[in-house]
Amino acid sequence: MKKNTKATPLDGLSPRERQVLKLVVEGRTSKEIAAAIGVKPSTIDTYRSRIMAKLEIGDLANLVRFAIRHGLIKP
């Protein structure tokens, strides 16, 4: 028997994308995030662009609102 769970937009993100999303909306810079997870800042910029495209969000303010609505960060 399958669980009856609702899919959320977050389900389309990889675990790494979720990690980067959380750090971005917490206000960390690409350089800080890159140092924390061991990649280049340009890689973080790519992740951010990919996340925003997947979620169909055009700016950082709406990305933060999305994160709050979905419980990634507290208001």
Unreliable spans are: none
Q: Give the distance, in angstroms, between the N- and C-terminal Cα atoms.
A: 37 Å
The number of helical elements comes to: 4
Structural domain count: 1
Please write the CATH class name.
Answer: Mainly Alpha
Question: How many strand elements?
Answer: 0
What does the largest sheet look like?
none
Q: Report the average pLDDT across residues.
A: 91
Fraction of residues in H or I helices: 55-70%
Strand-pairing-aware structural class: mainly alpha
Shape: globular
According to CATH, the fold-level topology is Arc Repressor Mutant, subunit A
Order of helices and strands: HHHH
The CATH homologous superfamily is called Winged helix-like DNA-binding domain superfamily/Winged helix DNA-binding domain
Beta-strand fraction estimate: under 5%
* Rg measurement, Å: 13 Å
CATH architecture annotation: Orthogonal Bundle
